[in-house]
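Form 7-S
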Amino acid sequence: MRKSVAAPAVGLLMALLVAGCGGGSSDGPAPVPPPPPPPNGNQPPPPPPPPTVANSVQQVKDDMAGSHEATSPQLGASDYYANGPALRQGPPGAGRFALGGYGQIYVGSGHAAPNARVQLRNLETYAYTGGVWKRVQYSERVKGAFYSASYAGSGTTAATAIRNEPTGGVSVKLVANRLFRFWPESGLTASLVDPATVEAVFTTVQARLIQDDGTVADDASAKLLVNTAAEWRDQADFESLYAAEVPAAAKFVGNDQIGNGKLRLVTSQWQAMNFHSGSSAQADALAAGARSALANSAPLEVPSAKRFIVIGDSISEGGTSGSLNNYDSYRRGVWNGLVSRADKPLVDFVGTRRGVTSDGGDCSPAPSVTNGTPPNPEFDPDHQAYWGWCTEMVTDALSTQLQTLANAGRTPDIALVHLGTNDITQQSEMASVIRSDLDQLITALRNANTGIRILLAQIIDFNSGESDVAALNAEIASLAAQRSTAASPVSVVDQNTGFTAGDRYDGFHPNASGEAKMAARWLQALDTALP
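Output:
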């Protein structure tokens, strides 16, 4: 390997030049030393960091008062919030049980900035119930589609206009004569709310202006407006907003709207765009206590979500319809448990697969079909679980999938792993062989992130497999102890103890009680793993 030679310091270099020009004599006056260089070689010092920007009660109140900060051709006279923030009063209609925060981007009048994009991240919704604000919905990334003014006609896909951003969330490039409506990637929420007890709703999202092409001059004069809002939905809409790329525009007209916040101009600095349906006193309560809604909202300057990857088989993936039954998997319980803990870091499930399987599969090279809609579509759909796959197959595919995530700026920070059932049931694999495959899986995860935290499950029992499962779980405990390091801890999560035949619906897969038990064990382990 060739070694680089450091360049001489400026003072030494000047001395050599002076000596070479006959200036080394001590008879003349000493040479005037050159001025010190700027801190970064020939570059000027970096600008000071931007001032800290945080959401506040006053900002929340301001976002529900006055007029929008600009007009937009996409705001129609029939829109109830055409002139400013507005509330729709009254309880949700019959059958409306799922709560959802959402938002919109409007092109302001006079906008002429073709290089502008709006970056969005950390869409959060809180419900005020029993005198306390509780976080019930969170999504680092949003989904969305384009619609005409006042949601007339039909929507169009925004797939080519949305891109992942390394600083969190996604950005969208607006198109002419269209507004952009966005909603949580994780879907709406039903399990964490009771419409009869929700007194007020608070929704917030972070937004800023960025460049579409970083080599082109900045569009500081862009006039793009963002707001947030909230609504109640029925079962059909609950599923549609989870699965559909472009929900019908008619779904956004005449639904049980809770209200819309002020449309504010986006700048190059992060801002929190808010909606609040409660009283002034309830708004004040957003900042009450060390674990208040505003105290726990994501910082505006830095991405803060911890990225989770769930790695497994059908027990982790879930299924929909027919012989596959119709179950969410424990991922739903883990997601809801993390979302409701507002004192814990914000989370983002990552993976190259989405939803639940719709065709099953076995321990063969072809992966099962995913993208199915779970029965309760209220959790982040991303995962790395394969119905029917053995540990070796999952491990062999993992490095490529992790590279795909890295390319999208979504390298996981924490891995939840439950694998080994198919190895035993389909291939009668020895526990030591499965251990070797899991060992390689740990290596693949660390190649992607040297500081990743790994939660390795001792797997649940299945019919007539208790002795084989016990042998594997002993190997898993030994492997975790061997591979755990201070930088990348490997923790054992006991999913086996207390899991009975009554917790399975077919001898292998967890039913509702089994999913709840598994989620509780993961959350208990994460309580320690997460700061």
